[in-house]
Structures are given as structure tokens and as C-alpha cells.
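Lecture 7 notes: from sequence to structure.

We start with a single chain of 335 residues. Read the sequence below before looking at the structure.
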Amino acid sequence: MSTSTGLIDRWGRRHTELRISVTDRCNLRCTYCMRALPVKFLPHSELLTFEEILRFVKVAVQLGVSHVRLTGGEPLVRRGIVDLVAMLAQVRGLDDLAMTTNGTLLAPVAGRLKAAGLHRLNISLDTLEPQKYCSLSRRDLLAQVIAGIRAAQEAGFEKIKLNALAIRGQTEPDIIPLTEFAREAGLELRFIEYMPLVDLPSEEALQPLPAAEILRILESHFGELEPEAPGHDQEHAPARVFRFRNGPGQIGIIPPMSDPFCDRCNRLRLTADGALRNCLFSNVSWDIKKLLRSEGPDERIAEEIRQAVLAKSWARGGETEKLPILPAPMHKVGG
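Now the structure, written as C-alpha cells:
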């Protein structure tokens, strides 16, 4: 298969990052992501196999993808996930291999993930209050998350980020405690504006906490924060990063709702059942699983990737609403 000079869309954006959902299953039932009622998950036969994921990644890397992040659902519920990490870590040209996890299952496997070749971890942590964590996630597993964070540090992961969802009227009291926890632990914290979903019954009660309000709360406690100019490796990063003037550490705010970063988006997404998506907000996808299981040549897969990139809209999948809505829960699309 011939390689190209990169996956560049009609707007000149070069796509180098691929997010792969390895499962739509999760051991949490977060109120902002899933219904409380039983959730219908994909049968295992519908999930891409590790070999299929590996094949797709090899093709994507030849086209210019250099960063892969494994997501879910919760990727650590996928049996054999350490083996997949080891397989992907051997792909020539893949410069960065990361994982986003809720951390509840991380402690027992942190060392194995590091040894297998995983470079970085993003760990979701919305609150440090046990009762509130249980209320948000519908599971009493905060202690396991903290243990997972500690285990990851002990395993030698140098790049660990904490992801905290920012929901108006719910998470304001958690901003300062989470920031202090991250600073004391030497971790990077990112607050992420909540993105509304289409099929959650409590949707009316959930609204994004805008970046400006998050920053105001932070500065009211820590004093003025200094914006950090993005480095070369952060030019496509969605976070607005700030440094503390009164000591070490930095804080990030990701504002997909109040200040979209579509102009520098460099991401593609592969869902657990093999659908390639060029935007989190798009309803359109390309059936990669069908190609992978039809024994067609890699060039056909490469062509689908190119078509997905060329079809990418300038902003939010072509949505025109002032407040766009995600067409599917994050556990189905991949966080």
C-alpha cells in the first residue's frame, strides 16, 4: 500500500490522532453518560478483534497517524487489554500510545500496562467526595480510583492527567479540592465542559459549566493564573493551559461548548464495532469492520480513511445549533 504525505482535510487540518474505543461496556453508570436502566451493550462478536484493531492502526499510521488513544466505555473491562497495548506498541511510526480510563480497575494492571508499552494515562476523577462520586457514577468505587492513580505513579507513568467533568450546579464545589489534590500529587488536571447528549432522560438538569466560570473559581482561590503558550507537541491540544503564579503546577480547561477548538482538530475515532467517525458530533460514519472482515486489501481501508477525512466538516459535524448535542453517549462513541 502506498503511503501519503498526511491525512489533510479540505480545511488544511492534518490528522495525526486516532481514538479507538475497544468496548462500549463500562463498570460505572455515570448519570451524565448512561441511563440508570439496564443498558444494551454490543455482543462480543460485534467488537473489533485485537488483530483487526492492529491492522487498522498499521494502515492509519502509514497514512500519517502518529498518536493513538485507547478508550471505551472503560477499556480496562476488555479482557486481554494489556496484550493489545503490547501489540500496538510495536507498530513502527506510532509515536504515542495512551489510554483514558475511569481508574477503578487500574491498580492491578498499571505495572503491566507500563511494561507493555503504554506511554500515557488520562484518569477520570470528577470529585473527591465519596458520596458525591457514588451519586455521579452510581458506584461506590472512589477508593479504587485513588488506588489506581497511586499505582500508576508507582509503575513509572510520568504523564498522568486527571479529567474532571464540569457540570453547572453540580461540580463547582469540587474544583478547588481536585486542583489541590492534583498539585500535591504532581499530576495535571483538566476540567472538561460537559457536552449534552441526546438520549439521557435527565438531560434538562445537566448543563455545561463554562470555562470562564471555572477560571473565575480557580483564580478566586489561587490568585491570577498565567496562560501558557502551547508548545509544539500541544498545538492541537484542546485544553487552555494555565500556570500557577504562587507555585509549581498547571491546570487545563477544555471548552468544547463555550470555545470550540474545531479549527485545530486533528482527530479521528474508531468505535468498538468498527465505525470510523471524523467528528464527535457527526451522525455519519464509515464501516471499517465490514472491510476488515471481507479480506479486502489494505488500500481499501486506506481509501475509507481518506474519504472520512475529506468529508469532515469545518465545525461540529456540520451542526448549526448554538448548543450542539452529541448524537450518541460517550460510552458508544469513545471518550
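DSSP finds ten helices and 14 strands in the chain. Keep this in mind for problem set 3.
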